[in-house]
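During the reporting period the student researcher (J.K.) took over the structure-prediction task from the postdoctoral fellow and processed the backlog of single-chain submissions. One of the processed entries is reproduced below for the supervisory committee.
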Amino acid sequence: MTTFVHEGDLPAGALAGAASVAVDSETMGLRLGRDPLCVVQLSDGQGDAHVVKLGRPAYDAPNLKALLTDPAVVKIFHFGRFDIAMFWLHLGVVTTPVYCTKIASKLARTYTDRHGLKDVSKELLGVDMSKVQQSSDWGAAKLSEDQVAYAASDVLHLHALRAKLDIMLVREGRDHLAKAAFAFLPHRALLDVAGWEDVDIFAHM
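J.K. obtained the following structure tokens:
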């Protein structure tokens, strides 16, 4: 397994030919509109990861933006709602098509309320992930080795999780609901950015 670290953008040709790419991001916090996007990490599921340290505030990353909007490549997230909103705010792109392992877990694993990446990976893959670096300074001038390793770990297992969850979704007869939720997810992220982050627009009141 190799982790490649890139400054500013994904290199041209990186991840070419992949039908699906796992994607995650690191930010300075979890508040949309306040906390900037700092890092985007990606993997095609073949064992390698690409960690892109974005150039702020310009965010001039045409290769990354092209991949995020490529209709032929499914972008796999865990809680993609936040990442997709961040990409719209800072990169100016609507990420599509997408798959979210957290949504898939909530639809398939109704026997638990533990749907974090660490919990799902532990149960379905036997992978014990460390979350020590989750709250570190992702805006630092240089990423530490621990930060790079953490960023890579968040995308290296998403393809395998997707495969496991797809089996469960079909078994439980909920794969059609998952597909509909994934199709709506970019729109849900745009609603967050537009001010409906804490409002259920489908609620009666």
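The committee noted the following: Helices lie at 62-68, 80-91, 101-108, 117-125, 145-156, 158-171, 175-196.
J.K. will present the remaining backlog at the next meeting.
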